[in-house]
Amino acid sequence: MTESNRIVIFDTTLRDGEQSPGCSMNLEEKLKVAVILEEMGVDVIEAGFPVASKGDFEAVHTIAARAGKAAICGLARATKGDIQGCADAVRAAPRHRIHTFISTSPLHMKYKLQMAPERVLEIVSESVAFARSLVEDVEWSAEDGSRTEPDFLCRCVEAAIKAGARTINIPDTVGYAVPDEYAALIAMLINRVPNIDQAVLSVHCHNDLGLAVANSLAAVQAGARQVECTINGLGERAGNAAMEEIVMGLRTRADRLPFHNGIRTELITRASRLVSAITGISVQPNKAIVGKNAFAHESGIHQDGMLKHAQTYEIMTPESVGLNKSTLVLGKHSGRAAFKAKLKDLGYDLGDNAVEEAFVRFKDLADRKKDVFDEDIQALVDDEMVSADQRIRFVSLDLHCGSKAPAKADLELVIDGAARQVSAGGDGPVDATFNAIKALFPHTADLQLYQVHAVTEGTDAQAEVTVRLSEQGKTVIGQGAHTDTLVASARAYVHALNKLLVKREKTAPEAL
Ligand SMILES: [Zn+2]
What we know:
Layout: E1 8-11, H1 13-17, H2 27-40, E2 44-48, H3 54-65, E3 71-77, H4 80-90, E4 96-103, H5 106-113, H6 117-134, E5 137-143, H7 150-162, E6 167-172, H8 179-192, E7 200-205, H9 212-222, E8 226-229, H10 243-252, H11 268-279, H12 300-308, H13 336-345, H14 352-368, H15 374-385, E9 392-400, E10 407-415, E11 418-426, H16 429-440, E12 446-454, E13 463-471, E14 474-482, H17 485-504
Helix pairs in contact: 2-3, 2-11, 3-4, 4-6, 6-7, 7-8, 8-9, 14-15, 16-17
The chain binds zinc ion.
Zinc ion binds near residues 236 and 512.
C-alpha cells in the first residue's frame, strides 16, 4: 500500500449531519462526537458552519482548541466574513482547514446566486486566495458539482488550485448522479485539469437515490482520494454517504478496492450509538453495518449454515465493527462490574459518572422488571447519554388519570438551574403532561409526532417515546425511555425542547 492509495476520511456529521431535519446538538454533545471521531482515526473533522450562529462558532472553536491529530475544518461561503469567521474558529487546532464553496451549476448560478459564470469564476479565485492568506490548508467545493457543465467545472477547479486550494471537492449536492457517470466526471477532471496533480480530489455524495456510498466508491476507483461522509449516513434530506458503509466496503472488499484508510472500524458501533442517542434519530433495523439486524441471522437455513461455518452467510464479523457477542445476562443481583462489562459488550464507553448514573437507573429498572434485556440497557444508556448540560431537565412527574376524572399532571423541571413545579390538566395523561411542560416553559412549537415503542416484549417493558416538534420550519426530535410511558413521554418532550433551543439560534443552513 502506498500513499497514492490512501483515502482521506472527512467526516461531516457535525456539519452536514447536524443540519439535517430534526437534528441539532449543543456544545457538549458536539464535543462528545468529536472525541469519538478523533479516536476512530478520522483525518478531517468538519466541525460546523461557524457563521451559522454564535453557538456554531463556539462549538467549532472549542473542538479546534481540544483537537489532537485530526484536522479541524469549518465551512464558509465565498464571502470575506464567512472565511474570516471560519479561520478564527478553526485556528486553535494544530491542523486546521477552511472549506469554502460556491455553486457552479447553470441552475444554481442563474437562480440561487443570480451571477454570470465569469463572475463565479472570479469569486472562486478571490475566495480561495483570501482563505489561503489566512490558513495553509484550504478545500474548495463546487456546489452542485455533478450538474455543472464539464468545461466550466474544469476551469473552476483549475482556478481554485491556482489560487491555493489543496483539496477539490465535487459534491453530488442533490443526490442525482449514478456511479459510472460520477466516476467518469472524476476521471474527466484528472485527465483535463492541467494542475490537478497539486490537489486531492474529494467527493461528497447525497443519498436521495440510495447511491451515496456506491457513487463515493466508484469515484475512489476513478481517482478520488478523499471521501466526505457521516456516521449513520446522517445529513440533509436522505443523508450523506455513511462512513461505516464506506470503510467496511473498503475493508471487506479490499480485493476489488485496494485502498487503505486510518479508521479503527472496531469503534463504529460505539460511534453509531452515540450519534443516534444524541440526535434522537434512530437507525433503521435493516441499515447496513449498524442496524440492529445487520448481523442477525433468523432463517433456519442461515442459522444452520452459521453454526457449521460462520462465513457461509457472514461477510464481516460483528467484532470488526465493535459488536461483541454478548454472553452476560443481567438481573437484579448483577453488580457494577457485570454492568460495566455489559456496556462494553454493547459498544458503549461512558465516563465514570455516567456509568454510575446509568447503574443506579439499571438497578431501579431491575427492581421493576424481571428480565433486563440488552435492548433495555441500550434504551437506558442512550437516554443517559443525552447531554447533562441541558437548559431544561426533567425531575419528576406524578399523574392522576383514568375514566372518572379529568387527567392532572404534577410536574417538576429544572430550568436554567432553578427548580420549578406546576400542576396542569388535560385531555388524558399525555396532554396533561405536555400542558404542564408548556406551563413551565412557554413556547409555540407544534407537536408533529408522538410515538411510543415498546423496547422489549411484555407489559413491564420499557417504553421508548419519540417526540417531534416544529417551530417556524425548524424541526427537532427528542427521545426518552422509561418503564412508565408518561415519564418517557415527558423526558422525550423535554429532550426535543432542548434541541429546539439550540436550533432557534441558527440562520438557515446552506446545502452542499
Ligand atoms: Zn451535503
